[in-house]
């Protein structure tokens, strides 16, 4: 019997690892609606994957995989078992990242009851000459190797900056069973390679470039080497790939002072062929905290996109494109996992702007016409610059730079408009200024005039930065601290009457300096302390404020491996003997009556009825109404089902009639009696030879 019906429309939703089906599309109620899935009934699903190309000149425009037949049998929990309800798991977030994740119970029967952590990490991969990618692992200190530092290694990776040179990173792993460290590392390049530079390594002398060699540290056998575990040594050279380099790791001879550990003073040597790249992937995984093992690793799908598609060995999805669908989940331990949103990249501009607690889009005009307040706040990105960081724009106006630390750039700020304006006359000129409230900011320049002539300058004739009262305070929300602001008057014009010290209807440039607020001394915009704490640029195209308004500048918090994570707990299935005894009342048989045939019959020869909700062990004796034993069925497995093929003890087809099933449950110390009816159809003779 076939039922032809449109079941679904195709869509480009990506690869999905699970689907939820609740309706039996083959059985309907009186209104034509599909019934709920029937417990105990087997359903067969034909599953394929397909691709589609909408191009009008493409033929064929679709490809479909071979059918995979999946058998599913819905059922209630096994006798005595209590399961966690399916649905989302509550997660506890640690760290500051702007990130969200979903963990969903897919199979309650597989839950372990363990505690878990979703972690974030980076993973390096190196390619060999054949383009095969392998993971780079930091080798742990190993006290069992019968040697000194000779098992230590260097792994090399190359990137090409585009100027004809090569950036090389040598990843050092110091391995020494006799507890030695390494005094130094020397790398020898072949003739024809030019060494351009090498970066210092903290705590070690050098590097010293001599001819074709670079030496970090030394070979002095100091007995307290500066390389103690792992290190990345960075250099830049010019040469034609591939080429070989020789390297030496120098033993610091520490163990020579400890005879019980000393083997010998022995350096590590090696040769490496350079010519193929190293990549670093950003990943996530899941750790079973209870067992201390990872159940998922190297996952690269964030928000439905495989962010490492095409990078080195490629991403975890293994697809031919980066988009896998926002519902994509990867499964382990009966759970589905998904990272819904999050990024490893430090922010480049606002994530959002808030106005009196309400979120508004960034870089737009906001305000309240009923109160005559209006703001148009943006940043240098709106003016064609790559980002809003102070490090990008501050130097263009006389500053030295700005911070690149994620810990600083992810902090949020509020502009609290508390200023009170007044109009006064200074040296015969009408001036609108902030009389009280607000805060003191450092005015360090202007585009249309020299600040030595600014009416607010306490030292007329001097172009040095000075403190100017502005109509708002700047607060670091993360640190709950008022901070400083450096201001540039972009459109202020001394010929205007009145002159606005803070130009509400024109452009003002500002840079947030995340240092404790000081209303007594102007900022030194070239000082190292200013550079280290200059975070963001803010452009005020207009700022016709209303007192007590609050503008929030919110910046995305990137994922920081080792600092950001989610933790959660699961509840495993629980067995109760008392509940198992109570569940005996659920034991049943279907179809009952058996009327000539059943939708479960596979062929005319393969007829059966099914006993349900049985515990692991059961003995079923089937009698006719005359008390004669017809059949004995022994069950000893984890399924809650067992079939009777409608044959007697002697292999004959049971006749139509009423039967009694006497079910013994030895583990529960109880029994169950069922009545069942069989109505046979036209008999089919089964000849046996």
Written description of the protein model:
- The protein is an all-beta fold and 689 residues long.
- It folds into five domains: 74 residues, no CATH class; 118 residues, no CATH class; 144 residues, Immunoglobulin-like (Sandwich), CATH 2.60.40; 203 residues, no CATH class; 103 residues, Macroglobulin (MG2) domain (Immunoglobulin-like, Sandwich).
- 3% of the residues lie in helices and 42% in strands.
- Strands 28, 29, 30, 31, 32, 35, 36, 37, 38, 40, 41 and 42 form a twelve-stranded mixed beta sheet that branches.
- A hairpin with a 6-residue loop joins strand 13 and strand 14.
- It starts with 22 loop residues before the first strand and ends in a 10-residue tail after the last strand.
The global form is extended
* Beta fraction: 35-45%
**C-alpha-based Rg, rounded:** 37 Å
Tell me about the biggest sheet?
12 strands, mixed
| Terminus-to-terminus distance | 32 Å
Tell me the total number of β-strands.
Answer: 52
Helix/strand-derived class?
A: mainly beta
Q: How many domains is the backbone divided into?
A: 5
- Specify the helix fraction band: under 10%
What is the mean pLDDT? Answer: 87
Low-confidence stretches: 138-148, 368-372
């Amino acid at each position: 019997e076939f039922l032809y019906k449109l079941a679904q429309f195709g869509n480009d939703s990506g690869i999905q690892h699970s689907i939820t089906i609740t309706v039996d599309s083959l059985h309907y109620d009186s209104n034509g609606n599909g019934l709920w899935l029937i417990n105990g009934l087997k359903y067969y699903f034909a599953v394929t994957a397909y691709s589609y190309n909408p191009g009008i000149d493409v033929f064929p425009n679709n490809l479909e995989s071979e059918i995979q037949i999946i058998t599913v049998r819905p059922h209630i929990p096994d006798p005595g078992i209590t399961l966690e309800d399916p649905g989302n798991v509550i997660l506890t977030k640690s760290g500051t990242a702007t990130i969200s994740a979903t963990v969903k119970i897919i199979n309650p029967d597989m839950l372990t009851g363990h505690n878990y952590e979703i972690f974030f990490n980076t993973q390096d991969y190196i390619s060999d000459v054949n383009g095969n990618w392998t993971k780079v692992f930091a080798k742990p200190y190993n006290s069992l190797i019968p040697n000194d530092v000779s098992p230590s290694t260097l792994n090399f990776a190359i990137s090409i900056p585009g100027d004809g040179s090569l950036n090389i990173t040598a990843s050092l792993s110091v391995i020494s069973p006799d507890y030695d460290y390494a005094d130094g590392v020397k790398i020898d390049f072949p003739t024809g390679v030019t060494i351009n530079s090498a970066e210092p390594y903290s705590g070690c002398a050098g590097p010293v470039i001599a001819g074709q060699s670079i030496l970090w540290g030394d070979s002095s056998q100091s007995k307290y080497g500066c390389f103690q575990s792992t290190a990345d040594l960075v250099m830049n050279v010019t040469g034609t790939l591939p080429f070989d380099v020789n390297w030496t790791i120098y033993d610091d001879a520490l163990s020579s002072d400890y005879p019980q550990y000393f083997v010998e003073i022995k350096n590590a040597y090696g040769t490496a062929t350079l010519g193929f790249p190293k990549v670093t992937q950003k990943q996530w995984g899941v750790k079973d905290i209870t067992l201390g093992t990872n159940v998922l690793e190297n996952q690269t799908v964030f928000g439905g996109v495989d962010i490492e598609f095409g990078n080195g060995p490629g991403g975890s999805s293994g697809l031919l494109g980066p988009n896998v669908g926002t519902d994509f989940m990867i499964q382990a331990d009966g759970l589905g996992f998904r990272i819904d949103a999050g990024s490893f990249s430090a922010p480049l501009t606002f994530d959002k702007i808030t106005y009196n607690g309400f979120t508004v889009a960034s870089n737009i005009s906001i305000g309240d016409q009923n109160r005559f307040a209006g703001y148009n706040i943006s940043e240098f990105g709106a003016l064609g610059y790559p980002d809003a960081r102070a490090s990008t724009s501050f130097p263009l106006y006389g500053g030295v730079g700005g911070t690149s630390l994620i810990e600083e750039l992810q902090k949020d700020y509020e502009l609290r408009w508390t200023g009170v304006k007044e109009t006064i006359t200074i040296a015969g000129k009408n001036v609108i200024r902030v009389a009280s409230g607000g805060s003191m900011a450092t005015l360090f320049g202007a585009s249309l005039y020299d600040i030595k002539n600014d009416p607010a300058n306490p030292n007329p004739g001097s172009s040095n930065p000075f403190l100017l009262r502005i109509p708002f305070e700047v607060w670091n929300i993360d640190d709950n601290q008022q901070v400083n602001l450096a201001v540039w008057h972009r459109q202020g014009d001394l010929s205007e009457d009145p002159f606005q010290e803070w130009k509400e209807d024109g452009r003002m440039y500002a840079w947030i300096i995340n240092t404790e607020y000081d209303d007594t001394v102007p900022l030194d915009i070239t000082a190292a302390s200013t550079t280290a704490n200059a975070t963001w640029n803010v452009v005020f195209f207009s700022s016709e404020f209303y007192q007590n308004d609050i503008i929030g500048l919110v910046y995305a918090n990137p994922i920081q491996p080792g600092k950001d994570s989610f933790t959660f707990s699961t509840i495993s299935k629980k067995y109760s003997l008392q509940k198992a005894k109570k569940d005996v009342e659920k034991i049943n048989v279907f179809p009952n009556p058996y009327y000539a045939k059943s939708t479960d019959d596979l062929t005319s020869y393969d007829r059966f009825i099914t006993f349900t909700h049985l515990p692991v062990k059961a003995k079923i004796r089937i009698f006719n109404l005359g008390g004669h034993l017809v059949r004995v069925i022994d069950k000893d497995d984890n399924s809650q089902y067992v079939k009777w093929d409608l044959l007697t003890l002697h292999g004959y087809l049971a006749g139509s009639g009423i039967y009694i099933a006497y079910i013994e449950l030895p583990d529960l110390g109880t029994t169950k009696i069922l009545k069942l009816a069989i109505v046979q159809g036209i008999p089919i003779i089964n000849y046996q030879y």
